[in-house]
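Input record, target 12 of the design panel.
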């Protein structure tokens, strides 16, 4: 019997630790890039009135790890713009994965990952609903990007394909810092548990997903790889060579 993936889309907080919600998704609301961009625009208008998120980025800029540097004259603004672009990338990533899955005839296999990523935005847990504005969107985008990153890491076809650009990993590390610890660590823990429940079987690791990889090598994925490669540079953010990345 082949691998069958259950749906574990959301998170709740139990005993101080984020845990995947064990319910079943009955219907998935379509999240288009334009819909999320509209949400981001609303959050930016809210930010223009409050300045809360920019202040948060200013605090983060003063406590960056040694491996990350910002060369711009206004580090907080650079981090702010990075965060907005990182958020906007989330729906585009989901759309790209969904498109490649359809073209590869693997919709059912990828459906749990796509559903979970969408639900971070459309049906967030009670805990995540407490965070609004750009701060809340950054948290949801981080969950989305990290879930997809773990999806790649848990299958040998993906691991050998080099589909995930190094810059994407670095962007997730920076987003982890911007979300802030220890909360970002709890988010990582929730992702790890979710992935185990979706793809914890050895069958998933051994699945031959070459058809998906082949589809992901076309133009639909190339633009995304280029976006990741330029995201940090465009915002004057640099990882040092001795950072291990």
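The sequence produced for target 12 reads:
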């Amino acid at each position: 019997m082949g691998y069958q993936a259950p749906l574990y889309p959301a998170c709740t907080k139990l005993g101080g630790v984020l845990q995947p919600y064990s319910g079943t998704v009955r219907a998935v609301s379509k999240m288009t890039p334009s819909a999320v961009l509209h949400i981001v625009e609303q959050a930016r208008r809210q930010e223009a009135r409050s300045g809360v998120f920019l202040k948060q980025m200013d605090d983060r800029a003063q406590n960056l790890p040694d491996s990350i540097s910002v060369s711009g004259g206004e580090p907080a603004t650079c981090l702010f713009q990075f965060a907005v672009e990182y958020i906007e990338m989330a729906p585009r990533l989901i759309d790209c994965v969904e498109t490649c899955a359809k073209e590869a005839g693997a919709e059912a296999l990828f459906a749990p990952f796509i559903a979970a990523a969408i639900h971070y935005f459309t049906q967030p847990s009670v805990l995540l609903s407490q965070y609004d504005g750009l701060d809340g969107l950054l948290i949801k985008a981080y969950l989305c990007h990290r879930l997809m990153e773990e999806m790649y890491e848990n299958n040998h076809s993906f691991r050998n394909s080099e589909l995930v650009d190094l810059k994407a990993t670095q962007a997730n590390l920076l987003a982890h810092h911007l979300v802030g610890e220890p909360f970002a660590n709890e988010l990582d823990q929730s992702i790890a548990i979710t992935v185990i429940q979706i793809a914890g079987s050895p069958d998933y690791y051994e699945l031959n997903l070459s058809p998906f990889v082949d589809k992901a090598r076309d133009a639909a994925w190339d633009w995304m790889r280029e976006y990741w490669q330029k995201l940090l540079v465009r915002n004057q953010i640099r990882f040092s060579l001795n950072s291990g990345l």
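Strands lie at 11-14, 17-20, 68-70, 237-239.
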